[in-house]
Design goal:
The protein is of the alpha/beta class. The chain is built from seven helices and ten strands. Bound molecules: adenosine-5'-diphosphate (ADP). Adenosine-5'-diphosphate binds at residues 11, 17, 35, 37-43.
């Protein structure tokens, strides 16, 4: 699902934020991407959705060459890669339902399909009864649920999450984690960047660790493993 070969990203052309990264993630895996602040986690995620182009190296998503992809094809890549972020990135003037529906409208889904899929996925993330709330009327955990619903409504084969629990209380973080786990169990590959030591240590999934832009550890059922 993800293949990175000798990927280096230097924003200034000299100092690498990511240095010679080699990573393979197979279809259906769940991977934690851990590392201290500034170690390159967000940069790696941005490279996977072609928000950035690497200085060097090759990146393939589901066999597609992301580095050499024509700009006009990038929207097709993003259609297949759901994304959630620490700060939710919801549209404040749209309700929970409208935020999810909008993600389908922009890819040209017909109205009748949206009317089935949007409520279905909002129920899946546990937002029954809150479809008409605006983001400002929802708790942080609920906003992240909307954001997950939006990322997953098109059933992408790959879901990337950049510190999705970074702004949430520990018990709410666990609920978001178990939703990501459920999504993973439907066959979606999940890559989650996180700082959350306790969660990583409790859940015991594959852990890929970055430090100063280098991949320093890749463990099948790993632990967080930093002293910070
Ligand atoms: P993390 O997500 O692990 O906190 P980042 O990928 O955000 O790490 O950052 C990795 C390194 O790249 C840091 O040294 C950071 O300062 C640098 N960096 C991130 N974004 C930019 C940018 N837009 N321009 C220049 N340097 C950046």
């Amino acid at each position: 699902m993800i293949k990175m070969k000798n990927v280096t990203m230097a924003y200034d052309g000299v100092n690498p934020a990511l240095d010679e990264i080699n990573l393979q993630v197979d279809r259906g895996e769940f991977v934690f991407l851990v590392g201290p602040s500034g170690s390159g986690k967000s940069t790696l995620i941005k490279l996977l959705i072609r928000e950035l182009v690497p200085t060097k190296g090759e990146i393939f998503i589901a066999g597609h060459d992301v580095v050499h992809m024509k700009t006009k094809k990038v929207h097709l890549l993003r259609r297949n890669v759901g994304c959630v972020f620490q700060d939710f990135k919801l549209l404040p003037n749209k309700t929970a339902y409208e935020n999810v529906a909008f993600a389908l409208e922009v890819i040209g889904k017909p109205e009748h399909a949206i009317k089935v899929q949007a409520p279905e996925v909002l129920k899946l993330v546990g937002l029954n009864g809150k479809f008409d709330r605006y983001p400002g009327e929802l708790s942080g955990g609920e906003q992240q649920r909307v954001s997950l619903a939006r990322a997953f409504v098109n059933r992408p084969p790959l879901l990337l999450a950049d510190e999705p629990t970074g702004n949430l209380d520990p018990n709410i973080s666990l609920e978001i984690m178990s939703l990501l786990d459920r999504i993973n169990k439907t066959g979606t590959t999940v890559l989650m960047a996180t700082h959350d030591r306790e969660m990583v240590n409790n859940v015991r999934k594959r852990v890929v660790a970055l430090e100063h832009g280098k991949l320093i550890r890749d463990q099948a059922r790993g632990v967080y493993g930093y002293e910070d």
